[in-house]
Design a protein that fits this description.
Helices cover 38% and strands 24% of the residues. Helix 5 crosses helix 7. The longest helix has 22 residues. The N and C termini lie far apart (43 Å).
């Protein structure tokens, strides 16, 4: 299967519970994420405050591991209920204009999942492999959103990297064309899940399907372990 079977796709809670058996991997993903985004912020010259703390502010994080157990790529997700005043007052949604949020509500897209901090390790980037792990993570985010009962995926891709063009292929629409954060110009985009498109490269679709079907959801493993602890009076 084109060597896909050697790669693994993990799903974590960002704030990992103490009973999760994959803490070392969670730490490994953090180190890879820190390296990727430290390099990114060096280029922009403007990391904002203690941005490393963002790692545990999200609801979920995912990582793709190589056959050699290297972290290939990382992505993070947060759930937002637009009818919640607390959600709207949060840091992430505050960068969207009132008109953008009103548009999402008008289209009945009240429960959104933001996709943030997508990063691919240097040796695994398209320029070196001819294959986009960024695309793989983008298309996997749709699967995760569908499983989570989300209405739409939202995000602010960096325009300099042309990642907004990849989002267009996925079926995303523009909310705002120019937002500035961390020294970069971003595009605010959204994807109603029912409008998601297949990737134009069949190989990417095949890879996404394989990773999703073989995903290792550590949230489920942690819950099973917790149940066993309670059964044995360890809770």
């Amino acid at each position: 299967m084109n060597g896909f079977e050697e790669f693994k796709y993990f799903i974590f809670e960002s704030r990992i519970p103490k009973s999760n058996p994959h803490l070392p991997l969670h730490n490994q993903i953090f180190e890879a994420w820190r390296k990727i985004w430290s390099d990114t912020f060096v280029k922009s010259g403007s990391p904002s405050g203690n941005w490393l703390g963002d790692f545990i502010k999200h609801d979920l994080l995912v990582g793709i591991l190589s056959p050699e157990n290297e972290v290939v790529a990382v992505h993070m997700y947060t759930f937002h209920n637009l009818k919640s005043l607390g959600s709207r007052a949060g840091e992430y949604l505050s960068i969207y204009s009132a008109d953008s949020l009103a548009k999402l509500e008008f289209e009945d897209l009240d429960y959104c999942m933001s996709a943030e901090y997508l990063g691919v390790a240097e040796k695994w980037r398209r320029s070196k492999l001819g294959f986009s792990f960024s695309d793989v993570l983008l298309w996997l985010s749709v699967r995760l959103a569908e499983e989570s009962g989300i209405d739409a995926v939202i995000g602010t891709p960096i325009k300099l990297s042309n990642s907004h063009k990849n989002c267009e292929l996925l079926g995303c629409h523009y909310l705002e064309s120019r937002i500035f954060k961390y020294g970069y110009e971003l595009a605010a985009m959204y994807l109603p899940l029912e409008e998601a498109k297949a990737h134009p490269d069949p190989l990417v679709n095949e890879f996404v399907e394989y990773l999703w079907q073989t995903r290792i959801d550590t949230r489920r493993q942690e819950r099973k372990l917790r149940v066993k602890e309670l059964e044995h009076g360890l809770g």
